[in-house]
Amino acid sequence: MGRGRHQPPPAPKSLRERFAALRNVPAFLHSIWTTSRWMTLTSVLLRLVRALLPVVTLYVGKLIVDEVVHQVRLGGFRGDLTAALHDGRFDHLATLLALEFALAVLADLLGRVVAMVDSLLGERYADLTSIRLMEHAASLDLEDFEDADLQDQLDRARRQIAGRSSLLSQLLQQAQDAITLVSFAVGLAVYAPWLIVLLAVALVPAFLGEFHFNAQSYAVNYQWTPERRELDYLRMVGASASNAKEVKSFGLNRFLIDRYRVLSQSIYQANRRIALRRAGWGGLFTTLGTLGYYAAYAFIAWRTVTGAFSIGDLTFLSTSFRRLRTLLETLFTGFSQVAGQALYLDDLFSFFRIQPEILSPPNPRQFPRPLREGFVFEDVGFRYPDAERWAVRHLSFTLRAGEVLALVGENGAGKTTLVKLLSRLYDPDEGRILLDGHPLAEYDLEDLRLNIGVIFQDFVRYYFNASDNIAVGRIEAREDEPRISDAAQRSLADQVIGKLPKGYAQMLGKLFKGGVDLSGGEWQKVAIARAYMRDAPLLILDEPTAALDARSEYEVFQRFKELSRGKTAVIISHRFSTVRMADRIIVLEGGRVAESGSHEELIAAGGHYAELFELQAAGYR
Ligand SMILES: Nc1ncnc2c1ncn2[C@@H]1O[C@H](COP(=O)(O)OP(=O)(O)OP(=O)(O)O)[C@@H](O)[C@H]1O
């Protein structure tokens, strides 16, 4: 068993590690590409055109200024506009202006289309990745979900999905900006190449600063994931309908709010420290950049005064410089943001890399129908991950085909664990479990679970309608109304549903509008109907009758016994009135079998069972 197998990526430290996170970018781009090829292609192509527009527009602007200056030199114009338009004096200028206008319109239109495609693609990507996340989560072992590290990682991955779609636009925008930058740089290089170097040198500190602080933000975010999850939990406990009853009557609100306040304050402080340092250093680095820009500006102005550059050149160069500086800045900060986000991709991708260990073998056996021998536990031992104590150990017994077996034992004796091992939610650490003579691990996992109908004591109260709440027992038969009402009849749930305003269509629970809540016992009847819905050869009820009144429990169990004729059944209960009806009773103590036999045999033996029975009976006298 893979204990502690989820090694989440450690909080990144060195610059190299931060760069290393960029290795996730190709995988990310690949998943974008598979999300929608044509949308990705459209976005890329349009951005390519869009990238070259600024320099062309600016160059046309320069030509306009030069033309205007030329016209002014010719003595300006004060005559008749119609005549001037006719003699073609302004044709060149008019063409340039029209071209500039067309370029501006094109840039706007392209920008809008690109934004639209990006947002659609981003949404699609987020949806598909969420589905993939759910699918992958569904494939993992129960043990995985009990691991706090995995919960943290899953939480980060989940939070990142929504944000990651903006990573796409950011990446593409980066590429677009880079092309625009190169086009400006080429234009500039023709005039004064070393100015570009000056700009780059002035901007490098800002880039490194951003990079550093992004990684620090991530580190803070990373280290505080458990606390952030606790915040979510506190918010949920303090503000959810299902908890309101207890929270109110215990007067827990103040406690919860104070705990929230203290915790959120520490996260805020950590973030504030980074924000302050980031603003301080960022301000200094930006000033350096501004200094570089004005040095370059002064140089261009000087060269224009001395006549080396035209006024059009001055406009072109100064604007090019301003744009170059902004572009470089956006590129640098954008790059460090991309690298920052790539760190979060680590969480997502490493979550996808976790593999379940409880799997079907290559050539699996099918569940034996009919069951011939039953289940045999041979010296089975199991310890929960990170637990010091064994939950069950040296556990040996047989669950014979066709019998109704009751499991009794004090809290923590290992009854539920036994059921989890039986349905292969966990694999034993020691010993083995045989089903009709073959290890459980040789059977097809899905088929095995399909043939075992378990209702756990902490069964789920789905906020679905009554019909679906029963249908979850065999969701493929969701439309099979007779089957659902039949299952409800067997578990006595039909009486509950009959009283609901909308019958089977009634939404249960208080989460959604129009929902009706049920009492604990009524919920149990609905849950037990799931077992009948499943119609499996092995039925297991893990304390599902605890909240039923005495009459209901008697009736439910009587029916259970009748209806499970020809099937194998396991029932866990603390009520001896129920337990005594079983064919055989196993008493668990400290994770192993202490006694076994029928009610009468065990009473006669005068052991632990007899003692527990006597205790309960005394309570009723
Ligand atoms: N998910 C878990 N992780 C770690 N330890 C667990 C987990 N579930 C149960 N245990 C421990 O394993 C032991 C057996 O628990 P189990 O739930 O099987 O008892 P049980 O007999 O069903 O008890 P109860 O009558 O209270 O339902 C207990 O000591 C319990 O603390």
UniProtKB/TrEMBL annotation:
<dbReference type="InterPro" id="IPR039421">
    <property type="entry name" value="Type_1_exporter"/>
</dbReference>
<dbReference type="InterPro" id="IPR003593">
    <property type="entry name" value="AAA+_ATPase"/>
</dbReference>
<protein>
    <submittedName>
        <fullName>ABC transporter ATP-binding protein/permease</fullName>
    </submittedName>
</protein>
<keyword id="KW-1133">Transmembrane helix</keyword>
<keyword id="KW-0547">Nucleotide-binding</keyword>
<keyword id="KW-0067">ATP-binding</keyword>
<feature type="transmembrane region" description="Helical">
    <location>
        <begin position="178"/>
        <end position="208"/>
    </location>
</feature>
<feature type="domain" description="ABC transporter">
    <location>
        <begin position="375"/>
        <end position="615"/>
    </location>
</feature>
<feature type="domain" description="ABC transmembrane type-1">
    <location>
        <begin position="41"/>
        <end position="340"/>
    </location>
</feature>
<keyword id="KW-0472">Membrane</keyword>
<dbReference type="InterPro" id="IPR036640">
    <property type="entry name" value="ABC1_TM_sf"/>
</dbReference>
<dbReference type="InterPro" id="IPR027417">
    <property type="entry name" value="P-loop_NTPase"/>
</dbReference>
<dbReference type="GO" id="GO:0005524">
    <property type="term" value="F:ATP binding"/>
</dbReference>
<dbReference type="InterPro" id="IPR017871">
    <property type="entry name" value="ABC_transporter-like_CS"/>
</dbReference>
<dbReference type="InterPro" id="IPR003439">
    <property type="entry name" value="ABC_transporter-like_ATP-bd"/>
</dbReference>
<keyword id="KW-0812">Transmembrane</keyword>
<dbReference type="Pfam" id="PF00005">
    <property type="entry name" value="ABC_tran"/>
</dbReference>
<dbReference type="InterPro" id="IPR011527">
    <property type="entry name" value="ABC1_TM_dom"/>
</dbReference>
